[in-house]
Amino acid sequence: MGHKLNQWCAQEIDSLRSRSLFHMPRVHETAPGARVSIGGRKVIQLSNNSYLGLATHPKVVAAARGALEKYGVGTGAVRPISGTMDLHVQCEERIARFKGVESALLFQSGFTANVGVVSTLTVEGDHIISDELNHASIIDGARLSKATRAVYKHKDYGNLRELLKEARGAKGIKGKILVVTDGVFSMDGDVADLKATADACEEFDAVPMVDDAHATGVLGKGGRGTVDEQHVHDRWALTVGTLSKAIPVVGGYFAGPKVVKEYLIAKARPFLFSCSAPPAVVAAVTACIDVMETEPQHLKNLWDNTRFFKEGLKSLGFNTGDSVTPITPVIIGQGAKAAKFSQTLFDNGVFATGIYFPMVAEEKSRIRTIVSAAHKREDLQEALDIFKKCGKELGLI
């Protein structure tokens, strides 16, 4: 039983291995931080999304521990049945205040938040227009919808206008049009122009939505995200994000009008059919927001480190693309070379993951680096020295 399936899987894996594109995840033995233990060795961590270093913050850990002791390890139900606790409601109210919107709704992950919102808010007769470099969860949400779909060239807002004009004209779309973009693009570290997006949406009666996964906690006043950073609060409809990056726990959220939240409660399948987040998780999320608002030094440290490391990579001669955020790619251009560079860096004490097809196009293979507020200047200087050594060994600089 399963022989043909096993054989097919083995052949596919062998094909990936032959191109140096199959690697098992490295197993971490310590908490997220500037330096971590992997396979019994200490390395500088440059592949973690905990931008503000809050995963081990005493207030966050204490909040999780307190909730664990009071409420137990899990809810034992989906939200609509008996899985909604006062902690969930309090956390949603806290997220809504932080994002400056009317309401918020928790999902089990950033992935399910995007899938749930996109697939639920668009129906047959509607139309979805998405940036070509949007996250996979947005793409999958659009595929699950009965709406028609189109993709605009990355951050090409003239192309977005053309597609909107075509949708309202030649295609005769009378229903809703949802325009979706990442706020910060996760592989390149560049930022969407929400003002240009809002302009296009207003012209053609479309609804703008942003996935602020890599912007929450990073951009805007106190880390409130791209909508705040670009001052489009009164022009923006829908925000989705994750609770596993600058807020380094797990989960996702919708933030926007109360009536939309209520519709998602009634219809969004991930919300309806997945168990609600455990109490310790929810309490930790709320505590992270409290820390972000009361301890601004973490955000300052993040950006000080970002500028130092980004300038260091550029001065060494590496191609860092169009990044303007703590996500800084080192573009290599070939998957096998990116994999080799990642391994060489690791052997010399830096954990920086290789990113290649299918996560990015083969010709855009890269090492993706992410600095955090937890890094000290000596951590980053040592990492730059190792990048220089390994880059020269492999003929990359």
Your description of this structure?
With 397 residues, the protein is an alpha/beta fold. The protein folds into 2 domains: 16-45 and 296-393, Aspartate Aminotransferase, domain 1 (Alpha-Beta Complex), CATH 3.90.1150; 58-294, 3-Layer(aba) Sandwich (Aspartate Aminotransferase, domain 2). It has helices spanning 3-18, 58-71, 86-99, 110-121, 136-144, 157-168, 194-203, 226-229, 258-267, 269-273, 279-294, 297-316, 335-347, 377-393, and strands spanning 35-38, 41-45, 103-107, 127-131, 148-152, 177-182, 207-211, 238-244, 248-256, 327-331, 350-351, 354-355, 366-370. It has a 7-stranded mixed sheet, sandwiched between helices. A 3-stranded mixed sheet has the order 1-2-11. Strand 1 (35-38) and strand 2 form a beta hairpin. The radius of gyration is 22 Å and the shape is globular.
Describe, in short, the structure shown.
The chain has 397 residues and is an alpha/beta fold.
Question: In CATH, what is the class of the largest domain?
Answer: Alpha Beta
| N→C terminal distance | 51 Å
Secondary structure class reads: alpha/beta
Give Rg in angstroms: 22 Å
**How many structural units, i.e. domains?**
2
User: In CATH terms, what is the architecture of the largest domain?
Assistant: 3-Layer(aba) Sandwich
Poorly predicted residue ranges: none
Count of helical stretches:
14
Tell me about the largest β-sheet: 7 strands, mixed
SSE inventory with pairings:
Blueprint: H1 3-18, E1 35-38, E2 41-45, H2 58-71, H3 86-99, E3 103-107, H4 110-121, E4 127-131, H5 136-144, E5 148-152, H6 157-168, E6 177-182, H7 194-203, E7 207-211, H8 226-229, E8 238-244, E9 248-256, H9 258-267, H10 269-273, H11 279-294, H12 297-316, E10 327-331, H13 335-347, E11 350-351, E12 354-355, E13 366-370, H14 377-393
Parallel strand pairs: 2-11, 4-5, 4-6, 6-7, 7-8
Antiparallel strand pairs: 1-2, 3-9, 8-9, 10-13, 12-13
Helix pairs in contact: 2-11, 3-11, 4-5, 4-9, 6-7, 12-14
